[in-house]
Design brief:
With 222 residues, this protein is mainly beta. The chain has one domain: monomeric porin ompg (Porin, Beta Barrel), CATH 2.40.160.40. The chain is built from 3 helices and 14 strands. The strands form 2 sheets. The chain has a 12-stranded antiparallel β-barrel with strand order 1-4-5-6-7-8-9-10-11-12-13-14.
Length: 222
């Protein structure tokens, strides 16, 4: 699942790409991270992950994209996400974002059993954000975040709760990080973040996946 705050169907993406080029933008991104962490837990057995994707955005606020990463759990070795949504900033400075994302997993005959879809809605104002997601098979999730830009770096913190099964099988997670750019023409970004979870996550995912961890990510957008 794309962290990035950063996150469709293929038909929607294809239709959007028929819009005039002057009104739209297509970007690509690639990242190397020491551990793929999603909602506080490792998706790759605490090993490095190579990630990347493509994003389409239109001046109307519509966006869509595809993103992938290597993973290592429950027979899956690859994750591929398709997403689409609409976002805008209102006159009072409040940002609104709504969309849907399809998570799919590959690598074995049973990996596809993990596939699921979530819809999400988010609001933001002056660095403060709130996101709520609800799925077709799994439980609800909410996250509160705050980001602050300094002259050379950006600081961020987040706290969330995820009901994995939809049956009160939930846990809390949190993170704090600092990010920036190496500068120059490369525009290569970096991020160092600490992730942690409540004790309930240890019982759900195991201590290896849910214990606290410091993660370094190097990324570039094209």
């Amino acid at each position: 699942m794309k962290n990035s705050l950063k996150i469709a169907s293929a038909s929607l993406l294809a239709a959007a790409m028929m819009a005039p080029a002057a009104q739209a933008e297509i970007t690509a991104n690639v990242a190397l991270t020491t551990d793929y962490v999603w909602r506080g837990t490792s998706q790759n057995q605490e090993d490095p992950a190579l990630q990347g994707g493509f994003d389409y955005s239109h001046e109307s606020g519509f966006y869509a994209g595809v993103w992938g990463s290597n993973v290592n759990f429950s027979g899956a070795s690859t994750e591929l996400d398709l997403y689409a949504g609409w976002g805008t900033e209102l006159a009072n400075g409040v940002g609104v974002d709504v969309g849907v994302i399809r998570y799919s997993y590959h690598g074995s005959d049973i990996a596809s059993d993990l596939d699921f879809t979530e819809a999400y809605v988010g609001i933001s104002y002056q660095g403060l954000g709130f996101n709520y997601s609800f799925g077709d098979e799994l439980g609800d999730q909410y996250e509160i975040s705050y980001g602050y830009d300094l002259e050379a770096v950006s600081l961020s913190v987040a706290y969330g709760n995820y009901d994995v099964s939809g049956d009160d099988d939930d846990y809390d997670y949190y993170s704090a990080g600092v990010s920036g750019s190496f500068g120059g023409d490369s525009e290569i970004g970096w991020d160092v973040s600490y992730y942690g979870t409540s004790s309930e996550a240890d019982f759900i995912f195991g201590e290896e996946a849910a214990d606290g961890r410091l993660v370094l990510t190097i990324s570039k957008e094209f």
